[in-house]
Amino acid sequence: MKKFLLSVALNTVALLIVNQIFESFYIEGIGTAILASVILAILNVILKPILIILTLPITIITLGLFLLVINAITLMATQGLMGDSFVIDGFGMGFIASILISIITLVLGGLVKD
Questions:
Q1: pLDDT (tens digit per residue) in 60-91
Q2: pTM attached to this predicted model
Q3: Is residue 114 domain-resident?
Q4: How far is CA 71 from the centre of its chain?
């Protein structure tokens, strides 16, 4: 449970940082960011493994780079479930945002664990 809460907190911070960087990535507020982080964590547990299995051949061919597309798909699915309080303008923005969110959570996770 502690790991899940830490993951949600780090994702919340990452979403808020990306929201500040890009105008085409909009989150209404901190409550929306927390809810989006919870939904994203749930989708990462349920949807992401299914997508990985279904796209395994292309993931192997691209040497794992297709996993970035899967991360963007889960972020876009989160945005679709959230409605107007969380808006990403296009898949390209979702792709860039998912990369930045991954990097930010990796860095913050390293700082928190040390």
A1: 999 999 999 999 999 999 999 998 999 999 99
A2: 0.90
A3: no
A4: 6
